[in-house]
Amino acid sequence: MIDFTPNPVALVVGPLEIRWYGIAYVAAIVAGTWLAFRLARQRGERTDMLIDGLIIVAIAALIGGRAYHVIDQWAYYQNHLAQIVLPPYSGLGIYGGLFTGMLAIIWYARRKHLSFWRWADIIVPCVLLAQAVGRWGNFMNQELYGPPTNLPWGIAIQCQYRVTEFACPAGSAPTATLGQHFTPLFFYESVLSLIGVGVMLFLWRRFTAHRRLLIAGDVGLLYFVWYGVERSLLETLRSGWNWTFFGLATAQVVGLSAAAAAIVAIFIRHWWVRRHPEEGAGGPAEMIAARGSPAEPVPAT
Length: 301
Prior knowledge:
The protein is mainly alpha-helical.
């Protein structure tokens, strides 16, 4: 059992609090950026486009993630409107960040005349890696946990961070844990996301770059299948949702809907390629990637 309960605040400088959640967000961006540069170089893509693009996408994801969280926790924020935009920014919703981040990627690819589908195959493992790293910010905030457990890796949660279903008895100290331990859903999601990174890289190298079974963009779409199912399964262990849809957690509805839409999109794109082999899936660049022809390397600047 893990009895360590972290302090969400890493450092205080005057009136400024630096929280572990923010540090984890930055670490997630750094990890994703590192992998993005590595994959772009390996696949002969222009790495000079990455920095500007990643800054735009990170800002868009931050805005979308914050908006999703505020909607999810509106029962609280409707009485604390200033905290929506004022620090500390300790709440982000992954689906909101994914939505606005994806819109930013589409916009940037069109603006720079890049192949969206080829870059989608590069970006999705980076997003999963970033999620795997960023989820540890939830641990530092003592959030994203499931029901009580006796498993060796169960984590202690202080009374002040308990959801209503697992609230401590009246009169308990805010920092007390009462010897109880809970399912570390943040850890499960982090591990599953890391496994997803390996799966995505394997699929691209084995079946997109050399085998023609997959076409450029399939790995990008498979991300929504992987994460949609992963998150939906983990949501069954959570409690205290504020944002539901016909009794289901909205995260489950969004995740499963995204997974279904991605599967349909994959079938439609493959059908299109079979019917129009001369055009490929979205253009000649995607068809080249599907056949495994090496892209002409472009020096990094």
